[in-house]
Amino acid sequence: MAGDRMRVTKEPEIRRAELIEAARQLFDKNGIKNTQVSQIVEKVGVAKGLFYYYFKSKDEIVNEVVDLVMSELKEASLKILADTQLTFYQKTSEFVALYMHMIDQFSGDEEENLDSMLEIISHNPIAQDANELLQAQLERLIRQGVREGHLTIEYPEETVRVLIFGLLAQSRKRLLSMEQVITIVEQTMHLPTGSLKDEMVWQKEHRALNGPQ
């Protein structure tokens, strides 16, 4: 009928990917808990029945988004550690930025959403694998800092666990700002006050001037 919105047919994998991306954007904006299936299908412009053709439930698409984000986190962290052009401080600040990105992806603007996100991640195999890899990489980074004379940490593995689980435990009570996380990392790793903040400010300005690398 003239004037009616024409139904657009797309390949199944394309439509499925659109639903996952829409869910990801809504989780980022509203948090997992406050995002409904109806909002996801509305954003894509499809019927709710099509959603359930691809996914059994909201929980299933949540796990798909977690898989995607954690896989990206894993890839990005490997790239950071392997980059020989980055200094110890640059790598550390990049890891802080990755942590904040992960929190932002799922928590939205409300603190109670973070509990839902952490509960889901704790039962997701890909997320667990990425978390273990991240811990191992941070331990390697701390050992690099010790070798280069930036740190005097005697127990790198234990320090990483205290840092990661301490930040997550605190975040479950209250979402931390970037500045707060930076300060906690500096103090835990006994880094000069403001060293990571100065590095992140420089990187932000550098990217603004030169564009993404």
Automatic annotation (TrEMBL):
GO terms for molecular function: DNA binding. Keywords: DNA-binding. Residues 13-73 form the HTH tetR-type domain. The keyword Aminoacyl-tRNA synthetase does not apply. The keyword DNA-binding applies. It comes from the Bacteria. Residues 36-55 bind DNA. InterPro entries: Homeodomain-like_sf (IPR009057), HTH-type_Tx_Regulator (IPR050624), HTH_TetR (IPR001647). This is TetR/AcrR family transcriptional regulator.
